[in-house]
Design goal:
mainly alpha
Length: 177
């Protein structure tokens, strides 16, 4: 009923759904929670971050929920980004989520220093060409560039010119990928 409720009714529903931590955790985790409710829950978490309280367990469940909409993931990443590197595990979950917006993946690829987050971006099929280019440019001088080359080679979003470049420069395992 949340999606058809008026704004006043939504406020009342949010009070019922999110006042008890247990209910918020359950809604964040349930695979069948409507996207509108997950979006409202993410907004509620963002508001609480501004106030100074945060519930990492709810954030993790939202990040893991396959139904979480892209706006909610973007909001969660922006809330986490206020203290970069605050929670690398949340960034990894956001980076590997299928609904993460391309601009968020690009920001992670360009600015994040956590290797696991960068690997998650390289494997995410939603990562666009710009995110993959930024990632490979950063990792070109790294000793771990072969791992990223393999991940990008198997990513369905990788453009053909990247595949040619990786194939020409890669080892036998990367070429196989």
């Amino acid at each position: 009923v949340y999606s058809i409720a008026s704004s006043e009714q939504r406020k009342e529903l949010e009070t019922v759904m999110f006042d008890k931590r247990r209910d918020a955790l359950m809604l964040a985790r349930w695979d069948h929670t409507p996207a509108a409710v997950l979006q409202a829950l993410a907004q509620n978490i963002s508001w609480n971050m501004e106030v100074g309280t945060s519930d990492a367990a709810v954030e993790v469940r939202l990040d893991k929920n396959p139904c979480t909409p892209s706006q909610a993931l973007s909001r969660l990443y922006a809330g986490e980004g206020s203290d970069l590197g605050k929670n690398a595990a949340l960034t990894v979950l956001i980076a590997q989520h299928q609904h993460t917006p391309i601009n968020v993946l690009e920001r992670i690829a360009q600015f994040d220093s956590d290797i696991e987050s960068l690997k998650a971006v390289s494997r995410n099929p939603a990562a666009g060409e710009q995110a993959l280019r930024a990632l490979l440019a950063r990792m070109a001088t790294s000793q771990m560039h072969e791992i990223f080359d393999k991940n990008v080679a198997t990513n369905p979003s990788t453009p053909a010119d990247f595949l040619e470049q990786i194939y020409a420069e890669g080892d036998a395992y990367t070429r196989t990928a």
